[in-house]
Amino acid sequence: MFGDLGADVILAESNFGHSLRHEPPFINNEAGKENSLLHNYVNWNKSSLIYERLDEINELVSQTDILITTASPISLELQNLIASLKSNAIHLSITPHGLEGELSSVSGNNLTHSARTGWAYINGYLDESPLQMPNRQSGYIAGIAGFMVASAALLRKDQSPTYELADVSEFDAFSLTVHPWGVAAVYQGIGSTYGPAGGRQRGEPHPLFSTSDGQIALAFGDWHHWQKAMDILNLPEFADHPDLVPDIGRHAKDLDPVRAGAARELFNLERWPLFHALSELRCVSGVVQDMKDIIENPHLEQRDFLRTTSILDKSIRMPGAWTKSTPVSWELKKSAPQHGQHTSTFKRVSPNNSKKTQTVKNASHSEGPLHGVRVLSFGQAWSGTFGTELLGLLGADVIQIETVDRQDVWRRTRDTIPAGIKDPAKKQHTLNTQGLYNSVNLNKRAITLDLSQEEGLSMFWQMLPKFDILADNFRPNVMERWGITLEKLEEVCPKIIYASISSYGAYGPYKDFPGIGTTIEPMSGLSSIHGYENEAGMNTGGLYPDSVAAYYFAGSVIGALYQRDIINKPQRIELSMLEAMITVCGDAVAEYDGLGSIAKPQGNHHPRISPHNIYPTTNNEWIAIAIESDNVWEKFVQFTDIPHLKNLEFNSMRNRKKNEKSLDLLIENWTIQQDAKILENNLCELGIAAARVVPLYEVYSSPSKSSLDRGFIKEIDHPETGPTYLPLRPWKLSHSPNPGIRPSPCVGEHSQEVFLQELDIGIQRYKELVKDRITGTLYETSQEN
Which CATH number goes with the domain that contains 647? Predict the structure, then answer.
C-alpha cells in the first residue's frame, strides 16, 4: 500500500526469498520464486535485495523512514538492525498477536484468528463444523491496519526526534471485522449469538437463492417498492400483505414464507436480469460472481479497476486501486520484483562500518498521532462510522452529524432498551442504548443538524472551513442535493479532503444501485470462495464488506493527509465497497486470469499447509489446528502419540497435503477425546498454531486475559448503558500514548458544545434552534423513550 501511493519500498529478502514467493497458486502451475501469483499481487511497486546477514543492510536501514517487520519475538540480530534506525524513524511490527501479552509468542494465522475472533463460530451451518474466513483474510486486514497506523505516525515524524514502535496485532485487527454483533448480543443479554445471519441450517435458502444460471442474494428487509418487487419474483400473494408492504419494521416480521416462495420461483429466472430489475427499484440484491465474472464485469471495466501486471512475460489482470483519489492517485508503476533484482543498486557495508545506535529521548504525543486533525462526518451504519472511529482512535477530533428526526440506522435496530443493560435507575433512551451503534462510534462527538432547513445548511457551511476532512457513506447523489460538491468545497475549504464510501462508487453502470454487506459479499466474489469444501459458496456469518471498506477508507484518508500540504488543493477520495472487497480476493482473481481456474471454497483447508482444519473436541467444542512446518509436525506427532502419524504418507508437507482426508480423520478421532482449552494451551506451548473456537458472545461477555492485558478490550462506561466491554485499538504506539476513550455519543449530545465552539452560538440562540428542530438532543426535543 505504501508503494501504491508513491513510497520507495524495498523488499529485503534472504536467499530463501520472501515467504509469499512459495505460496500457491503458481503461474504455469510450477513452483518457483518468481511464479507465485500471490507474491506478484502483493509485492508490486517494490524493489528487492538479497542479504545473507541482517547486519549487511544496517546502512540502508539507517536511511529509512519506516521499517516493517513480522517477527515475534524479535531476535537479537533484528534488535541490532532496529538500533540502526534514525532517531525519528518508525518501526512497524505486524505479528499474529502483537509484541506484548501472553499470546505474543504464540503462532497464529487466518484459521486460528477466525477461531478466536468469533468468525468461525458464526460462519458455518448449525451443528456442523465451524468455518474459517477465506484464506489470507486476516493478513490482508492486518496489512491495512499497519499501513494506517504507520502512516498516521509518519505525519508526526518531523515534529519529534522520537523513534516510534507501531505494534500491530493481526488478531486484534481482524477482531474489528466482526465485533458489533457480539457487543449487541451482550447488550441484549441473550447468552449467545450467531451474528446477523442468526445461525443457518443446511438447505435454508437465505440469503443466497438459486436461479436458473447461478445464485443471487436478496435482502428483503431493506426493499422499497415491495409490490413491484413481488411481481418481478412472481409472488403476487405477498404483494399486498399489510405486514410486509412498509419497509420500516419488516426485518422483525416473518419472512420465511417469502423466502420459501422465492426459492421456488427463482429457478425460472436468470440472475443478471433479476439483479438489474430489482436494483432499478432500489431493492437490495447481489449476484454471486465468481472470478470469471469479476474479470468480465462491465461496471469494473468502466471504472478501470483491474490492472495488468507482467509475470514471466505473461500479462495478468489483478485488482488495482483500492480507492479512487484525485489529484493524487493510486498507481501501478512496476511489477513485483524478481528475487534480488535490485541488490546491486543498494549500498552494502560490513558490520564494522555500520552506524552506531543513537540515544533517543522519550517524547509523547499524548493525544495520538492524528491530534489536531478534524473530521466532520455523515457516516452511518457500519462502514462510515467505523472508518471515522479508526481516525478518532488515532486522535482525530471526529464530529458525527445526524438529525433530530432521522438518526443513524444502527441506533434504530430495535425499539426497546436492550435487556442486558436496562437499568431503571438510569435515564435511558432506545436510540442511545443500541449495541451495534455503540460498538463503532468511540472517540467521537455527536451533533444534530438539519441540512434540509436553510438555517441548518448555512450553519454547516460556516463550520466546514474549520475541518480537515468531510466524510460520508451516502448514495453518490445525496451530498449533491445539499450543494456539496468538490467545486463548492474548493471555494470554501481549499485544502479539505472529501472522502466517501458507497456500494459501487460514484460512477459506472451500478453507481445508483443499492448495496449492503449481505449483497456486496457475493458481488465481490468472496461468497464464491467461502464455504465448505466441494460445495457451493456461501455468505459469511457477518457483514464483512463494511469493515473492509472502513479500513481502506481510514488508510486512504491518512494517505491524503500526508499529501495535503504538498498539493495545496482539495482532494477527493471515492471508495467503492465492491472494489475494496475484490482487493482482498485479489489472489483468486489472479488465479483465474493467470491459470484459467476458478477458485472454489476450501472449507478450513489451506492451499499448501496440512493439517489445517477445525476439529471436534469434548463438550461439543472445536479446535483449530495448523501445522505450518515439518519441525512443528514432529513435535505434534510426538505429543499426540498417534502411531499412524509416523507413516511415510505424512512425512512431508506435500505428502500430508496429498493425504489430507485420511490425516484429518486420524486427528479428529484423537481430538474428539480432548478438552479444547487444555489442548489449545498444550499445543501453543509447542509452537503449534492452535485455537479453541470461541463463541462470538463469549469474546465480549467474558474477554480473554490476553485481550484485557494488551488493552485491546476494555470496559467503557457509557452514560446510559453503564460499563460494557468493547474492542479498541489493534495497535500500540510506543511514544504516542493512546488517547483516553470517549464512549459512543448519545444523539445530539455535543450539539450545544460544538455550536458554541465553532459558531459562537449562545444558549438563547441554541434554544431557538432546538425549538425549530434544527438541532437538539432527544430529551431537549421531547422525543419519547
Answer: 3.30.1540.10
* Cα 338-344-347 angle, rounded to 5 deg: 130
8 Å CB contact between 231 and 283: no
Note whether 581 and 521 are within 8 A (CB): yes
What is the β-pairing status of strands 469-472 and 374-378?
parallel
Q: What is the pLDDT of residues 531-561, one digit of tens each?
A: 999 999 999 999 999 999 999 999 999 999 9
Query: Are the C-beta atoms of 39 and 606 separated by less than 8 Å?
Result: no
In whole angstroms, give the CA distance from residue 359 to residue 163: 10
Cα-based distances in Å from 743 to 407, 714, 715, 722? 18, 11, 10, 10
511 domain residue, yes or no: yes
User: Peptide bond before 465: cis, by omega within 30 degrees of 0?
Assistant: no
The answer to whether residues 525 and 640 belong to one domain is no
Q: Which three cell numbers, joined as nine digits, stand for 171?
A: 488478531
- CA proximity to 323, closest of 129, 447, 148: 148
Distance of alpha carbon 35 from alpha carbon 335, whole angstroms = 13
Residues 6+ apart with CB under 8 A from 509: 298, 299, 302
CA 167, 170, 176, 177 torsion-angle sign: positive
Residue 352: predicted pLDDT: 42
Pair 577, 643 in one domain: no
Instruction: Give domain status of residue 553, yes or no.
Output: yes
Residue 716 has pLDDT above 50, yes or no: yes
pLDDT for position 359: 30
DSSP secondary structure string, 73-102? SPPHHHHHHHTTS-TT-EEEEEESS-SSST
Reported as a single tens digit per residue, the pLDDT across 582-629 is 999 999 999 999 999 999 999 999 999 999 999 999 999 999 999 999
Q: Both 629 and 552 in a single domain?
A: no
Clarify whether residues 417 and 518 are in a common domain. yes
Contact 100, 732 (CB under 8 A): yes
pLDDT tens figures, 232-258: 999 999 999 999 998 877 877 889 999
Looking at the structure, do residues 565 and 442 belong to the same domain, yes or no? yes
User: Quick one: 694 and 576 in the same domain?
Assistant: no
The whole-angstrom separation of Cα 413 and Cα 433 is 10
Write the DSSP symbol of residue 318: E
The CA–CA distances, whole Å, from 660 to 483, 613, 652, 657, 688 equal: 60, 10, 12, 5, 18
Residue 443 carries which DSSP code?
Answer: T
Residue 203 phi, psi dihedral angles, 5° rounding: 95, -10
Q: In this structure, are 567 and 633 located in the same domain? A: no
In a domain, 316, yes or no: no
Cβ burial of 59 (10 Å; 0-12, 13-18, 19+) is: middle
Give the domain range for residue 234. 220-283
Which pLDDT band, with edges at 50, 70 and 90, does 366 fall under?
low
Residue 92 lies in a domain: no
Instruction: Tell whether 413 and 515 lie within a shared domain.
Output: yes
Distance of CA 452 to the CA centre of its chain: 33
Per the omega criterion (within 30 degrees of 0), is the bond before 611 cis? yes
**To which residue does cell 507413516 refer?**
647
For the chain, the residue count is: 785
Answer for the pair 656, 633: CB distance below 8 angstroms, yes or no.
yes
Q: Mean pLDDT, to the nearest integer, of 739-764?
A: 96
Strands 571-576 and 497-502, bridge-based pairing:
parallel
Contacts of 348 (CB under 8 A, 6+ apart): 51, 56, 57, 59, 60
Which residues in 513-539 are b (16+ Cβ under 10 Å) and which e? Answer: bbbbbbbbbbbbbbbbbbbbeeeebbb
pLDDT reading at 738 higher than 70: no
- Total of domains in the chain: 3
Residue 88 CA to residue 68 CA, distance in Å, equals 15
